[in-house]
Design brief:
146 residues; MetI-like fold; 6 helices; transport; ABC transporter permease subunit; transmembrane helix; MetI-like
């Protein structure tokens, strides 16, 4: 392999790594918003989701790395390694973002929630105008550590 091929392959490998990280980051944000907005608005969901995610957070990635690789290879042999990599990156990123969303939505001012209820604002509008803007600063702040 000459130098030009080496540079080309290196650029492709770096691009693939950034693509994996970006996909995992998007999944992390969507998962965090969906799960913890539901948990912050429903006490039953909160009582189930918070302990489960806290337990999952404490399990190191290396603890389930071999099982994850095996499962993804068994399910989809051609893309198994790529999907396993995205899943493992997702599990390392999601906890920081998820608990930031939880903190942001759980501690919204009661006046805002009461106003939304009094105006009979629907779920999509509450998401768009209340929950996501409240979560966005902490989510963006947690991108880099994640």
């Amino acid at each position: 392999m000459d130098f030009a091929e080496f540079i080309f392959v290196s650029i492709l490998a770096i691009g693939a790594s950034y693509l994996r990280m970006s996909i995992a980051l998007v999944f992390s944000v969507v998962f965090s918003l969906a799960v913890y907005i539901a948990a912050a608005t429903n006490r039953t969901v909160e009582k189930i989701v918070t302990p489960v995610l806290d337990i999952f957070q404490s399990i190191p990635i290396l603890g389930f790395f071999p099982v994850t690789i095996q499962l993804f290879y068994a399910a989809i042999p051609i893309l198994g390694a790529e999907l396993a990599a995205v899943f493992l990156i997702f599990t390392s990123q999601v906890w920081n973002i998820t608990f930031a969303v939880y903190e942001s939505t759980r501690f919204l001012q009661a006046e805002l929630l009461d106003t939304a209820k009094a105006l009979q604002i629907g779920l999509l509008d509450r998401l768009r105008y209340l929950y996501i803007p409240a979560c966005l600063p902490k989510v963006v702040r947690n991108f880099q550590p994640s």
